[in-house]
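Here we describe the complex-level prediction in full. Unlike the single-chain runs in Section 2.1, the two entities below were treated as one system.
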Amino acid sequence: KAGVTQTPRYLIKTRGQQVTLSCSPISGHRSVSWYQQTPGQGLQFLFEYFSETQRNKGNFPGRFSGRQFSNSRSEMNVSTLELGDSALYLCASSVAQGGFGTNEKLFFGSGTQLSVL
Amino acid sequence: GENVEQHPSTLSVQEGDSAVIKCTYSDSASNYFPWYKQELGKGPQLIIDIRSNVGEKKDQRIAVTLNKTAKHFSLHITETQPEDSAVYFCAASKAYQLIWGAGTKLIIKP
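The structure predicted for the assembly as a whole is:
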């Protein structure tokens, strides 16, 4: 079974631009969550999607948005990029058979390394 | 809200020795505590988890202990090997959302 696939692997953008990152979850997984990882801040939760609906959101500004498609694939968009947005963006999927409130194993992709110049 | 503190930030041990990483959490309602291992260039991978109704769980060389009264949990790795070198993250959760510790870089010295 293929793992979680994130594209692109590396991305270089300049301040003010926008960027879209893609995540393909493991087949059969309905939940996709996104994390920002920086050396100083560790793993910060961005949002989680389940069956095309955002059901959980972290404390990030509105410049960060996402969506999930009917095939469970997800995209994350960051508008008006700032230098501080440079980070590794990780996507994780889970089966989520238990529905909301269930703690389940997360399967992470290798991430997209975003550099904002 | 929940807060998770993880110590130490870096841990260097001799190959074959044991390693212990500790985390404390603030919300007594947290009921799920996973540990993830992140190798260079890869995303985190779950290595062991424990729920609040269990005090200890083992899987070969890895064990996790939970003290609900003190609100802390620990990862124990015995007989460390070079492939254990990685960054380890703890997390605490209630109602799905995970709150992560800052990570511990484990270095195994030959």
